[in-house]
Amino acid sequence: MTTTQGKAVCDWLAGHRAEMMALLEEAVNIDSGSSHKPGADRMAGLMASVLQGAGISTHRVPLATHGDCVTAELGGGLGGHVLLLGHMDTVFPVGTANQRPFRINGETAHGPGVADMKAGLVMNAYVARAFAEVGAKAPPIHILFTGDEEVASPASRAITLERAKGARAVFNAEPGRPIWNVVNARKGAFFIDFEVKGVAAHSGVNPYKGASAIEAIAHKVVELQGLNSPDQGISANVGTISGGMTVNTVADYARAQLDVRYPGSVDRAALHAKILEIIQRHAVKNTHAHITNEGIFYPLAPSPESEALLARYQRCASELGMKVEAEFTGGSADSGLTASVGAPTLCATGPVGGDVHTDREWLRVDSLVPRAQALALTILDL
What we know:
Layout: H1 4-15, H2 17-28, H3 37-52, E1 57-61, E2 67-74, E3 82-87, H4 96-99, E4 103-105, E5 108-110, H5 114-134, E6 141-147, H6 157-164, E7 169-172, E8 182-186, E9 188-197, E10 201-202, H7 213-225, E11 235-243, E12 249-250, E13 253-262, H8 268-280, E14 288-297, H9 304-319, E15 326-329, H10 335-340, E16 345-347, E17 353-354, E18 362-364, H11 368-381
Parallel strand pairs: 3-6, 3-7, 7-16, 8-15
Antiparallel strand pairs: 1-2, 2-6, 4-5, 5-18, 9-13, 9-14, 10-12, 11-13, 17-18
Helix pairs in contact: 1-5, 1-11, 2-5, 5-11, 9-11
């Protein structure tokens, strides 16, 4: 049964729907791709100002290569804190927000990052504001918004791990599933960029003096694709490949990008070692390969503590008339990081959306307030 405090927080959130939608529009209309630090920093400034406006202790953590992080803390007392997690970066290039800005069509909102995950940022910020302004008694609430999650969190990883330690609960506001479910299990991932160097030669006059980097990388692509194992839940995809200079030159250079996904049941170290062995093996004489960049997502697996957290969330959502189940997904997220330090973690608690990472991305406008209310009631129940 919803308490007086719970009703007050839920009423506050319902009364601030227009503000939440206005903030969402402003956020979506900021280009904040992972590689565009100026835009990601604009997002950090926007979200920090929203939290500071409610008197919440807020700080920006400057980062050199990616968007700054935003941290905030509300409340004190004994016991572990609740961590509200989100990322401010998107996958879209500079100029996308101008080409297709925020718009509403009936019950859905559209725009770059509207679901993944700018609506989740808005929701988390306003849940914190609700507790601050209503004065509801709750566990300490900490917020962490990062700016590089879409590229496996190279700059913010250590911050996320540190902020998750000792948390009694972590709620990662990735978009809720299209049927309003949350996520309690995700695959981990390796994002690996690698290149091959060979020896250039004229392909008609003296081809045998050359060593083709493209031939070498082709062998590697076939072997890497061979890592696919539906029975084990492993997927491997070489998503981009390029190389060479001209059609009549033996290529002295080629590069590719690899995405490998794996569930928590797979031996991560052994899989990683196999990938490295394939990449570094000399497939063609006088060619040499090496990794130029690597990102790692940890898998998210259910635990007794996270299942208990899920049950609390489901119970609170049901009081609002929502039936919520938990799903497994092949997508990766920072929730794997927080779970890796033992923090009970629930993912995809954000507003409901879909078709993320595409120009068809959408958000259910009518889910923004109910999902915020479900989160708030769960925090009060901890």
